[in-house]
Design a protein that fits this description.
Helix content is 49%, strand content 14%. By secondary structure, it is α/β, with parallel strands linked by helices.
């Protein structure tokens, strides 16, 4: 009999986590053993419960999905990580795979593909959905218009995501264990690469390119 695959769900929306759990519970081999709403919580829970697979929302608050992926890979090397994104054209796949993710899906995929990805990663394999793989391949073709965010390093991308969440230099410094001076250096370096002058322009640019979600009016 095949062993059960223990899963940690990470998403900033409780409704999304509940929906995914309901979709997965029909498969007797899959068991959701924990839920997290932030990157920090995902790292803490992973270290405590040692899941087989983490299903990671790239947009979670706190340290974010990219840094959480890096830390989980470092502290729990046996845990596989499947990243889930909203937009197929996000400039994240290569950087997240470099950070330690083993799978990459969009939230538009069906339950069969989620299951396939979880089972593949639990076996130690990689899984990238066909639409993301196609987008990655097309992005390397000559003449293909590149996203300006492709110019950012993994750390610059992480700082950018945290800035667009409204976190200040000291918040980012504490969460990433970097000095405020180093964080400021990364911040102004990404300003220069993206051709923006402040956090407001950076956030507007990230929303235009689908990097971050526009906050819904309350």
């Amino acid at each position: 009999m095949e062993s059960e695959i223990r899963i940690l769900l990470v998403d900033h929306q409780a409704l999304v986590r509940s929906g995914i759990q309901r979709l997965l519970e029909d498969n007797p081999r899959l068991s959701v053993v924990g839920e997290a709403a932030s990157g920090d919580e995902a790292v803490e829970l992973s270290q405590r419960i040692k899941p087989d697979v983490v299903l990671m929302d790239v947009q979670v608050p706190g340290i974010g999905g990219m840094e959480a992926t890096r830390r989980i890979r470092h502290s729990c090397p046996a845990t596989g990580i499947v990243v889930v994104t909203v937009d197929v054209s996000d400039p994240f796949p290569a950087q997240l795979l470099e950070a330690g993710a083993s799978g990459y899906l969009t939230k538009h995929c069906d339950v069969d593909e989620i299951t396939d990805a979880i089972e593949a990663v639990a076996r130690g394999e990689r899984y990238i959905s066909a639409d993301i793989a196609r987008e990655m391949a097309l992005s390397m073709l000559p003449g293909k218009e590149q996203s300006p965010f492709d110019r950012l390093s993994q750390r610059e991308m992480q700082v950018m995501l945290m800035v667009t969440q409204g976190q200040n230099v000291h918040d980012i410094s504490d969460r990433l264990c970097l000095s405020p001076k180093t964080v400021s250096t990364y911040r102004y370096r990404l300003y220069d690469k993206l051709g923006v002058e402040n956090d407001v322009e950076l956030t507007h640019m990230a929303i235009r390119h689908g990097i971050v979600e526009c906050a819904s009016p309350t």
